[in-house]
Amino acid sequence: MGQKKLIKFAAIKQYENVLENPQAMPGKWNSFFEKLAIGPYPISLDELSVIKNNTTTNHSAIKPLTLELACGRGEYAVGLARMFPNQNFLGLDIKGNRIWKGASIANKEGIHNVAFVRTQIDQITNYFDTNEVAEIWVTFPDPQLRLSKAKKRLTHPKFLRLYQQFLQPGGIVHLKTDSPNLYLFTKTVIELFELTVITATDNLYETAFVQSNQWNEKLSIKTYYEGLNIASSNRIHYIQFKIDKDLPIAKDEILKELIAEFEVTETHDAKRERTLPKTEE
């Protein structure tokens, strides 16, 4: 492991805004962000208050919580935290050296409504209570282009079932990607399970869309990977939807058959898995 990575790993272990596989956190995130804003430090997770978010009698002190999954450097989590100081944001990723970037920026700028969790996304239900999360952003995840890896895509029903366990009723999922395959796959999932699409475009920055009433300031945030244009598609695909229906496992086999008809094992943007900058591995 390189010296720079070691320095970053050591740094985030001292950051109050970075937690690694935190235990007993469901229901505590509102309390955590209150402590992050005012102290005292270090924050004792065991002493945090659990507040149940019953959306029918919503506690006025509870701030909406938004997640950025596979957040990388955390540009979206930090950017949203700047835009909405009265909401809380949490970036999740397994790469500690990437999380370091967003956490360091938040510390430098004194942004106390954003934090990061170092974990595997498939462990996500360990950290949140029912109805605790308002929105999810999936920003430029690994598209897992090989058909055999479809279940690793963060918009596969396997993952949507996890999100459904802690998303509030009507909670929204956003996907931003440069992968046409991942975008088409996600649309197929949504159609198969009859989920509600709010917004969908295969060219986010097209003038007509930017000038439409579907555009909002959240979409203007750009990540490091967006700038790389790894897929060489010259287009950013975006879809916003609700997980507002049951997701029967029996339909997963139908999904497998559907995507086999239009997916190939290797496409031009499959290079993403092999061409990430060495400093980011």
Explain the layout of strands and helices.
Blueprint: H1 3-14, E1 18-20, H2 29-38, E2 65-69, H3 75-83, E3 88-93, H4 96-109, E4 114-118, E5 133-139, H5 157-164, E6 167-177, H6 180-192, E7 196-201, H7 207-210, H8 224-228, E8 237-242, H9 251-262
Parallel strand pairs: 1-4, 2-3, 2-5, 3-4, 5-6
Antiparallel strand pairs: 6-8, 7-8
> Which structural class should the secondary elements be placed in?
alpha/beta
Query: What fold name goes in the CATH topology slot of the largest domain?
Result: Rossmann fold
Shape: globular
What is the mean predicted local confidence, pLDDT?
Answer: 90
CATH architecture of the largest domain: 3-Layer(aba) Sandwich
Number of DSSP E strands: 8
Could you give me the name of the CATH homologous superfamily of the largest domain? Vaccinia Virus protein VP39
Helix run count = 9
Rg, Cα atoms, Å: 19 Å
Estimate percent helicity.
25-40%
User: What is the CA–CA distance across the termini?
Assistant: 10 Å
Strand content: 15-25%
Instruction: Describe the strand arrangement of the main beta sheet, using strand numbers.
Output: 1-4-3-2-5-6-8-7
Characterize the quaternary organization of these chains: single chain
Order of helices and strands: HEHEHEHEEHEHEHHEH
Major β-sheet annotation:
8 strands, mixed
Output the CATH class name of the largest domain. Answer: Alpha Beta
Q: Residue ranges: pLDDT <50 for 5 or more in a row? A: 265-275
Count the domains: 2
